[in-house]
Amino acid sequence: MSKMNKVIADEYVYNTYFVGSSRMYRHIQPSLFDSLNNGKTRSFNLSYSGTKPPETYHFLKHFIEECTDNTKYIFLELSVISDLAEVNRNTLRAKYCLDFPTYKTAFMSCLQNKRYEAAWNYTISYLSRVWKMGMLESIWKFDGKTHYPQALGPRGDGFYGLEQEMADAGRADSTFIKRLDNFFADTTTLTKRYEKTIKEYKKNKSFRPATPANVAQIQGLIQQAERKGIHLILVLKPRNPGLLSLYNALPDNNKIDMCDPVKYPEFYLAKYTFDVGHFNGEGAELFTRALVDEFQQFSNKNR
Predict the structure, then answer these.
(1) Which phi and psi (to 5°) does residue 15 adopt?
(2) Which terminus of the chain has a smaller tally of CB atoms within 10 A, N or C?
(3) For 192-261, what is the HEC assignment?
(4) What domains are defined for the chain?
(5) Is the pTM of this model over 0.85?
(6) Helix (H, G, I), strand (E, B) or coil at 41
(7) What is the pLDDT of residues 121-169, one digit of tens each?
């Protein structure tokens, strides 16, 4: 909410946006990205922790509709439809995004890769939304104010590195310290992800197949963006094996691979790590610089 309020207050002045989970929110620095692009981009990081498909698809569909002619690029984190646990299926966050098209994508994608429990939970959540079960009370209590002021980050551009937030929180929040300590107590968790990713790239396919429902949804968003003159770019992020088959199923002029462990072995080093899924401050800068290089090559090829 706070991020969209900022974009609206700024009258959609940005021409580049980043959308995804904490792996975009914590890793992509708009100020550095724009500086390295010599002012050709003015970007804002719309990502936030735990924001994954189908929620990102629902958000992006409406965001593209609202974008002005100023918007040129949207970077979307590539991901599968997330699992919906029974404990979360009746939450307002689970239900608000489940209009019928979004529900259908989530249900069919889970069904197609045999995640039957998740498909059932999406069905329960969708029906609860249709019948407004438990939603009226939640909506009534919602005051429209964000409870996550950190979402905008210190620069107000939507980026907030984990190390920076840990330093700002100090001893008031030991969660960050525990995450850091837990990783460095056993860094083999990252090594295992690296090895798993190496195997996928050798086979040129992932252990998780691309589901037709998810591919169709992404292609629909690409086409919707094109109609508005926006280039939607799917980003295959590092440290998250299982997405190569989905990446391969998408058009070449709408994707960037940041996951390749041969091309980017440094992304799998402990010295750039906060926890197994996230970079530290130095790693986030490294990732942003590499993304700029890829984007510039990508732009030259797609002129």
Answers:
(1) -110, 0
(2) C
(3) HHHHHHHHHHHHCCCCCCCCHHHHHHHHHHHHHHHHCCCEEEEEECCCCCCCHHHHHCCCHHHEEECCCC
(4) 2-84+149-301 (3.40.50.1110)
(5) yes
(6) coil
(7) 999 999 998 887 665 555 545 555 544 567 899 999 999 999 999 888 8
